[in-house]
Amino acid sequence: MIHLEIYRFDPEKGDKPSMQSYAVPVSKPGMKLLDALNHIKWHLDGTLTYRRSCGEGVCGSDGMNINGVNGLACITDVAGLKQPIKVRPLPSMNVIRDLVVDTTHFFDQYRSIKPWLKTETPVPEHERLQTPDERAELDGMYECILCACCTTSCPSWWWNGDRFLGPATLLQADRWIKDSRDEAAGERLDQLEDSFKLYRCHQIMNCMEACPKSLNPTKAIDHIKRRLLTRKS
Questions:
Q1: Are 232 and 193 in contact (CB under 8 A)?
Q2: Residues 223 and 109 in one domain
Q3: Mean pLDDT over all residues of the chain?
C-alpha cells in the first residue's frame, strides 16, 4: 500500500486547511503519483481536486509540492518516495481548492514579456529561416512547459513576486532575446532593465532543482544580465 497525506481546502465550507490521509494499492509497476491521485479521486474520495491533462509531463498542469519539492505528479514515481507522501499545492500561490492554485499572476507575468516573434521587416514569402547553429541557441529554453514548478520554488519570487518576474518568465524572455528571427531584442532588454523584474534573482538555484525538464533558468537570467552589461559598455 502507498500512504499519502494530501492538503485539503474547500473555501466554500469555510474550514481551515488540513492534511488528509489516504492508502492506495500499488496498481502497476512504475506507478506515478498521478496514478495514486486518480485512484483516490475515482475510488475513494471524489471531492479531491487537482489539475491534470496529458499525463506525460508535457502540459505542465499537475505541478504540486511533493514531500517538500515541487514537481509534476504524472512523472514522479511513487517508488522511493518517503511515506507518507505529503502532497501540497505549489507554494506562494493562492489556493483555489485542494491542490489547485490560482496561476493568474504567473501567466500575467509571462504575457508581460510579449512571448511571440516581433519583427519590423516585411513578412517573407515563406518562413523566416535560421541556421542550425542559430536554432541550437534555443535549446534548453523552448522546452519549458510553464508548469510554474521553478518559479514557485524561488524565495526571491516568494518575497517579491509582485515585481520580480521569476525564473520561468525570465527563461522565456531570454528565449526570445536569443531568437535570431526576432528583431526586438533591444526593446525586450529595455523592458527587463529593472532592479526588481530581473535583478531580484540572487542565484539561489532552487529553480534548477525543481524543473522537471532539467532546464537552467539561472543561466538564462545571467545571459540577460550580461547582454545588458555589454550594451552599456
A1: no
A2: yes
A3: 96
Tell me which residue has cell 518517503.
Answer: 82
Q: Angle at Cα 8 formed by Cα 149 and Cα 108, nearest 5°?
A: 35
13/54 same-domain check = yes
Q: How far apart are CA 12 and CA 19, in angstroms?
A: 17
Of 146, 226, 215, residue with least CA distance to 178: 226
Contacts (Cβ under 8 Å, ≥6 apart) of 177: 185, 188, 189, 223, 224, 227
Residue pair 116/127 in contact by the 8 Å Cβ criterion:
no
Q: Cell 525564473 sits at which residue?
A: 167
Domain count, the chain: 2
Q: Is the pLDDT confidence value at 233 over 70?
A: no
Instruction: Identify whether the C-beta of residue 92 lies closer than 8 Å to the C-beta of residue 161.
Output: yes
Rounded to two decimals, what is the model's pTM? Answer: 0.93
Give the single-character DSSP code of 73. G
Residue 222 has a pLDDT of: 96
Cell numbers representing residue 217 in the block = 533558468
Helix (H, G, I), strand (E, B) or coil at 95: strand
Given a contact cutoff of 8 angstroms between Cβ atoms, the answer to whether 120 and 187 are in contact is no
What range defines the domain where residue 70 resides?
2-101
pLDDT tens by residue, 100-155: 999 999 999 999 999 999 999 999 999 999 999 999 999 999 999 999 999 999 99
pLDDT (tens digit per residue) in 172-222: 999 999 999 999 999 999 999 999 999 999 999 999 999 999 999 999 999
All three cell numbers of 54:
496529458
Structural domain ending residue among the three candidates 34, 67, 101: 101
Q: Which residue in this structure is represented by grid cell 538555484? A: 205
